[in-house]
Design brief:
Elements (H helix, E strand, L loop, with lengths): L1 H21 L6 H13 L21 H29 L1 H11 L12 H126 L3 H55 L1
Helix pairs in contact: 1-5, 5-6
InterPro entries: CFAP91
Keywords: Coiled coil
């Protein structure tokens, strides 16, 4: 419908132009001379600059589309030049007719008036070509816009993927650093607890040894004092009763050496019992320290 309406408008405009040309009054010779002077002084038509395709950032234009665009540009430029030539000829029909009439015979003047059918055909052809060229350029512009949009979306997707990889790398590094720091803290805690455990065991062992030594020294002192008292009393008693050195020696052996050996044996047995209790105390303290360490680890 648009093409038909455009064609109808073109035909109406052409018909009106033909009617104006046919019914236009004759111009005078002065006006013809002025037009001829203007024609002589007119400057040659300069060729318009050839448009060049814009350089895209991606430099990935389709070759066929670019060649088609260049071809259409040449066609449009050629049609524009033809339109300028045709308009100049239409403006100077009377001048051309006059020049030809002066050069030719007066009886057979050339007929320079354009044919109405030919003008109509030219108008229809130009309208059809213009519509086709416009539709082609519109389609190419839409295709170019779609390609640029696709490139923009692809660039955004690539940038998003790069950002995601960068964030994943940073997160991996952060987690690795946290794990290493946690391992270092656990190792330091383990070493501190080992030192504490060893210190506790050493302290308990030293305390038990000190207590056992003090108890043994006290018992030995008491036994020595008792032996001294008993030995003095025994010697006095033996000296008063015994008649010979052999009886005194037997009495001393029976009453002093054998009981002393029994006391030493009992002391050793008591020392063994004390060491057993000290070992049990060390084990209990070790179990308590390990339980406290496990509780602290669970809380951390």
């Amino acid at each position: 419908m648009r093409a038909e309406q455009r064609l109808r408008n073109t035909l109406d405009a052409t018909a009106e132009a033909l009617q104006r040309v046919k019914h236009a009054p004759d111009v005078e010779r002065e006006e013809r001379e002025a037009v001829l002077a203007l024609y002589r002084d007119a400057k040659p038509v300069e060729r318009p600059p050839t448009p060049e395709p814009l350089a895209d950032e991606s430099e990935a234009e389709d070759g066929a589309a670019a060649e088609a665009a260049l071809l259409l540009q040449r066609l449009l430029r050629g049609r524009a030049v033809q339109n300028l030539m045709y308009a100049a000829k239409e403006r100077r029909l009377e001048l051309l007719a006059e020049l030809r009439s002066e050069e030719g015979s007066a009886t057979d003047p050339p007929s320079l008036a354009p044919d109405a059918d030919e003008v109509a055909r030219e108008a229809v052809f130009e309208s059809a070509v213009g519509a086709a060229v416009g539709d082609a350029l519109d389609a190419m512009a839409k295709e170019l816009g779609a390609q640029r949009e696709e490139r923009r979306i692809a660039a955004l997707a690539a940038a998003a993927e790069e950002e995601r990889q960068r964030r994943e790398t940073a997160e991996t590094r952060r987690r690795t650093a946290e794990l290493e720091a946690r391992r270092a803290e656990e190792e330091a805690y383990r070493q501190v607890m080992a030192v504490h455990r060893g210190s506790a065991r050493s302290f308990v062992a030293a305390l038990v040894d000190e207590v056992a030594g003090e108890a043994a020294a006290a018992a030995e002192g008491d036994a020595a004092r008792a032996r001294d008292g008993e030995l003095g009393a025994l010697l006095d008693r033996l000296e008063s009763k015994a008649s010979g050195a052999g009886e005194v020696a037997c009495a001393l052996l029976r009453d002093f050496v054998i009981p002393d050996a029994d006391r030493l044996l009992a002391a050793r047995q008591a020392d063994a019992e004390d060491r057993k209790f000290a070992r049990a105390a060390q084990l209990c303290i070790g179990v308590a320290v390990e339980s406290a360490e496990a509780a602290l680890c669970g809380g951390v």
